[in-house]
Amino acid sequence: MKTSTKLKFLAFGLFMFVGFSSCKKDKDEEIVPTPTPAGYTVPTTYSFSNVVYAGQTIRLTMLDSIGNYMSKGNGGIVLSASILKNMYANTGSPFGNTNLDASGKQLKNKTYAADQAYFDALFDSIAMASISAGGAASNGVAGIENGRLFDRNGIELSQVIKKQLMGGTFYFQAMDTYLSNLPTDDNTTIIAGEGTAQEHHVDEAFGYLGVPIDFPTNLTGLKYWGSYCDEVNTSITCSAPLMNAFLKLRAAVSNKDNSTRDAQIVIIKNQWERVVAASVILELTEAKAAFGLGDLTEMKHVLSEGVGFINALKYKTDKQITNTQIDAALAALGTNFYTISIADIDSAINTVNAVYGFNLSGF
Question: How many domains does the chain have?
Fold first, then answer.
């Protein structure tokens, strides 16, 4: 997020991936949206029959609660890894909120399976960093710096956790669970209140975007990816294309228009990936600005967000960027933010932007 909301985790060598250059035309600008076929109307807001994505809304709120708890570490409170893990798995009524505790929903079982233990380890790491109990942070020493909790390497683990969970849970579920499998879902049997499986899975993918039904006209209540989509929209023009594709997708599914359905799936997946990549560029560009101003607390904050977003790129199987390129971007940033340079940050930016071709002057 803008200059005081961001970062990621590399503390115990859990790296991940990315690529190189700058000023070419954004590749996805060449996507031509498919026209709406005659015979049915696409609404201008996400107002369809049998829409429900309450489970997604609950999980967004669960991440809010995890974030709120982690933020206590910024004030010198010693955090409990057990509490964080219980929130992640919704075990033992950890939220103190019946709507969440008794929902039967959780974040952990919707997270990319191979990284569930990784997130548990991150909860251990942030709890360990908080043992400083308000002591000053410095190179090699975890603690507080200007109201932010950093680990011994200057990484704000709360930001890494939140941004990477946005990828490993919300983005992963929308991309690889719902949209990738949509064409093989049943589109005949109607379940009261949910519609067909295809309709319901479009709705669930939309729920993870975290936007109101009249986005982007209405920007009230944006959460997570919706908030970042709006934030990078002036740089890459993504909000209207993404929302319009969701509207066309849901209308196409309800009208058994498979060719339009398949075309919109491609557009949504490409546009959402652009949002993730642009969020990386945004955070790293802000890190350079903070570095230049000598605001090293802010630099480490947004770098941590950037690391989380770089790792988030991996959670889409048919992504444009390779795991090798993701690893390269993370390696450019290194494992200690106290020793990072502008050249290191530029290297990570260029590695990512070699794939997506954004106009870097727009960030």
Answer: 1
Q: Are 155 and 132 in contact (CB under 8 A)?
A: no
Q: In 3-state terms, what secondary structure has residue 102?
A: coil
pLDDT, average across residues 82-107: 98
In sequence order, what DSSP letters do the residues of 291-357 get, joined into one string? Answer: HHHT-HHHHHHHHHHHHHHHHHGGG-TT-SS-HHHHHHHHHHH-S-TTS--HHHHHHHHHHHHHHH-
- Please work out, in degrees rounded to the nearest 5, the angle formed at the alpha carbon of residue 175 by the alpha carbons of 171 and 179: 140
- Does 8 fall in a domain? no
pTM over 0.70: yes
Nearest residue to 276 (alpha-carbon basis) of 161, 155, 171: 171
Maximum C-alpha span of the chain: 66
Question: Residue 301's CB: how many other CB atoms inside 10 A?
Answer: 31
Report yes or no on 149 lying in a domain: yes
Residues 227-256 have pLDDT tens digits of 999 999 999 999 999 999 999 999 999 999
How many other C-beta atoms are found inside a 10 Å radius of the C-beta of residue 320?
17
Domain housing 231: 27-362
pLDDT digits (tens, 9 = 90+) for 324-353: 999 999 999 999 999 999 999 999 999 999
